[in-house]
Amino acid sequence: MQTILVFICLFWAIYVLFLKFKRDFTIKKGCSKGCGMCSTDTKKTMIFLLFCVCMQACDLSSKKQENIDSTNFAVGKSNKPMPKKLEKVQMADTSKFEEVPNLFPNNRGKFKEKGKYGFVDSLFQIVIAAQFDEVEPFQDTITKVKKEKLWGVIDSEGKWLISAKYDKLGLFKDTVSYFIQKEKYGFLTYKGKEVTKNEYDWGDNFYEKRAKVSKNKKWGFINLKGKEVIALTYDGCRNFSENMAAVWQNSAWGYIDTTGKVLIKPQFDLALDFEKGKAKVKIDGRFVEIDKKGKVIK
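The chain above was modelled as a monomer; its predicted structure follows.
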């Protein structure tokens, strides 16, 4: 409505000016038609109309800027209005929380209420009700949760992928993790499929698609399918790093590759992981650095 009024005032002012200047240029003395266009009152009216136009334009500009500023305050840098779905968001009452999340991996942060854990999203809406004894941060779209002293796995909506029946679960790497049940280690996928039974005395997370395992005090490695790709013949071993793993045999450390081939024969008192093509080893009571062929470089 204000915009229409501005245009009407502007049009009338221009029209009056046009008629005045037309008469000024065509009739030098007085106004032959007696229309009064050149009278003092008419001039005052024209000035008043122009003043009204300017005031209306300034008012519209000011209100437009206020709208932009209020929009920026509400939703950040965007000048678009807030989506309707966000207008209906109701945040949880965090004053009731015993623990409030400050990290939101996969848009899920753990909170604690009445001694139990659940998850909220980054807008602090409860998406998984507080019901667990312990929880871990989300790893991609899954997380481990403890309920009634046993561990299982849920997805980001709270759906059980692995029911709570294990004493402990490891870190899922390449979709597979170890589990402990009845004091024995086995391996399973994040969907709950067991790739090995709980038959090992010890197990570890996967590194470079190999996990070290132990049975009857001997060590070896399995692959993601649970197959023993490196026989359990070693007295000890470290995890794989840069496709090489330190192994202990006959009271000395050496290195093998992911197929079990010996690359550096056991000869060291201690051997650490390879990093950037080098590894620290202890020999004759001192530490040195070697390359992947076993040659001392430092």
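The mean pLDDT is 83.
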